[in-house]
Write a sequence for this structure.
């Protein structure tokens, strides 16, 4: 007669550093995906998004080095508090600026442009929340 041992699958909550690196890594991946397109295809993207090419080019030019910084931050075993607060502040300003741009009437985005702006606001907000929760869970 054989006895089957019951195995218990328990999930342990992610450590603060793990959650923080996850938030930074997702942020870096999204930034790496968007930055080159904005920087090098701004003229082509302008018409379908209904957003000025110069605005898209400027965003892409900023995001290229920002992506490198995010990759570096995500690769740290335990990212420094100062580094994380820099990311939190920049991300928060990005979300606010995007929402103000969208709501202000300064630009007339197409439906695709509105979707693009919405993905920016929701995505960057989600990354920022993950990063903040990771920092809090670390007791910082």
């Amino acid at each position: 007669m054989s006895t089957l041992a019951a195995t218990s699958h328990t999930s342990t909550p992610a450590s603060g550093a793990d959650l923080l690196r996850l938030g930074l890594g997702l942020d870096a991946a999204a930034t790496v995906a968007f930055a080159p397109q904005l920087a090098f295809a701004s003229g082509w993207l302008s018409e379908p998004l209904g957003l000025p090419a110069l605005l898209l080019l400027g965003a892409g030019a900023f995001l290229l080095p920002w992506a490198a910084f995010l990759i570096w931050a995500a690769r740290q075993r335990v990212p420094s508090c100062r580094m994380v607060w820099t990311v939190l502040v920049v991300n928060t300003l990005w979300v606010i600026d995007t929402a103000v741009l969208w709501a202000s009437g300064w630009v007339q985005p197409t439906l695709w442009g509105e979707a693009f702006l919405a993905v920016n606001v929701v995505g960057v907000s989600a990354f920022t929340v993950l990063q903040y929760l990771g920092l809090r869970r670390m007791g910082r």
